[in-house]
Amino acid sequence: MSKLNKDILFLTFEELQDDSKSLFSCLMVNRLWCETVIPIIWRNPWCYDINYYNKKYLFAIIISYLSDDIKKSLVKQLKHLPSISWKSLVFDYLSFCRSININIIKYIISTGLSSATNRLLLQEEFYGLFMRKCPELKYLDIRSIENQIFHFPEAKLRFELLYELKCNTSDDPLYFYELARISHYIRRLIIFNKTYTKANTGIIKLIEVQKDLKFFEWIDEFYRCNPDYSNYNSRESYKEIFLALGKKADNINHLKIYFANNADRTLQKVLSKFHKLKTLIINDFKYFNEELLRMCIYHDLEIFKIDCYNLKAASIIIENSGGHLKKILLGSYNFNYNHISNFNDDSLTFIRRIYENCPLVEYLSLVFPPSREHFNEFEKLLKICKNLKSILLIICEVTEEDSLVNEDELLKILIRSSPISLREIRFLYDFKFSLEILEEFLEKWKGHALSIFTCKPIYEENYIKLINKYMNNRIIKDFRCESSMNVIKQGLSYEYYVLPYLL
């Protein structure tokens, strides 16, 4: 491995660009590996799952680029930090950088300076340095911005082809007006909504000037700013934003909306315009008009995620999809199903619409009561959907007239009818199988290596012995008892589950 061609190494490390643990391990193999992986890490060095608050070496690296006069001034102010280097660095790190993250840079600077004024001045120096050294800037996170970074002479050249922007609605509109003057080809726009009274006019302008916007994500966060947010009508902060977004619907392929409160009526009106969607994730369809929903036809849809209490809306969307859906996922399991009107009928329709319209589905979440009719429909789904790789099952406790079926019957269905493609089963809530049926179930997976996730531990010694036996024989690839939040992480990255789970 250590003698692989540099081009092969680079392509391999590119595949690991989101895996910080693996990339950082590669740094230690030899000089060639280190030289190859450094440009990948420093392309977007703020995106990794590490603690940036105490990364003094990042502070030292960036400081080393500053002029000697600034370094001498800093030496008098800095405490508890590594000594500032006056020598050239081994790598020209900033020449690889394509990203600015305002919050992380503020954290890095705050470890070295106590004075707010000095911190702002040093931020200005840092941003000027990035403008001079970075050949282009593709990723920009300006949440909590305090400096006008778009006035630098190099700003137009650096931000002209900006690819991704993350921002807050609470930031000064002037920053967005300046960015709208420069950046017309943003492809990914992620907005964290921290206001609930009015829209940010600068963000509206920024959306209006975009020529190739493909990905839009909206995340309500004003509930964190004010715990009494539910008393506010937040629609004013949405209306103009979504009207502007609707004018870009012909280009947008990926739409993700996480509302903290009731769904916005403006989005209901414009949603049918997004006919080229490949990804649709909306946590709240509860108050959507059914007639408007039936106008939402997405023939290219591949990923669809919705909350459990919106199964009727989900069935309508699935029925009008083009047969390309590969991921159908559910969220917000933390509520009482008895309080949902028509839950039994809606969950039954949901299963049917999937096997009628989604032959290619690979990742699937299902929630239904333990009735004979639901179990029969679930078995039909397993027989028809031959590409299933992962399934999340939530068998909820709901009182109903139909006969109840125990968990062993669920395993028998999986034994009889699971497609050979199935490699992962996730059980949410309390599933308890008999030892005999569980062993029969595990025998089914010889030669296939199944992973099982549950949020309820198996304490009995005999169960533990049985699981260990099949793990040792590599019939079970993985068996883990996780938190409910980890169990529902299925088919999408962590962030798309944590955010709606918290709302």
Secondary-structure topology with pairs:
Blueprint: H1 6-15, H2 20-26, H3 31-41, H4 56-63, H5 68-75, E1 99-101, H6 102-110, H7 116-133, E2 139-141, H8 155-159, E3 164-168, H9 173-182, E4 188-193, H10 201-208, E5 215-220, H11 222-225, H12 235-246, E6 254-258, H13 265-270, E7 279-282, H14 290-293, E8 303-307, H15 311-319, E9 327-331, H16 343-357, E10 363-368, H17 372-384, E11 390-395, H18 407-417, E12 424-427, H19 435-443, E13 450-454, H20 461-472, E14 476-481, H21 484-487, H22 495-502
Parallel strand pairs: 1-2, 2-3, 3-4, 4-5, 5-6, 6-7, 7-8, 8-9, 9-10, 10-11, 11-12, 12-13, 13-14
What can you tell me about this protein's structure?
InterPro entries: LRR_dom_sf. It comes from Rhizophagus clarus. This is F-box domain-containing protein. The protein is an alpha/beta fold. Among the domains are: 1-41; 286-503, Alpha-Beta Horseshoe (Leucine-rich repeat, LRR (right-handed beta-alpha superhelix)), CATH 3.80.10. 40% of the residues lie in helices and 14% in strands. The chain has 22 helices and 14 strands. It has helices at residues 6-15, 20-26, 31-41, 56-63, 68-75, 102-110, 116-133, 155-159, 173-182, 201-208, 222-225, 235-246, 265-270, 290-293, 311-319, 343-357, 372-384, 407-417, 435-443, 461-472, 484-487, 495-502, and strands spanning 99-101, 139-141, 164-168, 188-193, 215-220, 254-258, 279-282, 303-307, 327-331, 363-368, 390-395, 424-427, 450-454, 476-481. The protein has a 14-stranded parallel β-sheet with strand order 1-2-3-4-5-6-7-8-9-10-11-12-13-14. Helix 15 packs parallel to helix 16. It is globular and about 75 Å long. It starts with 5 loop residues before the first helix and ends with a helix. Mean pLDDT is 82; it is low at 494-503.
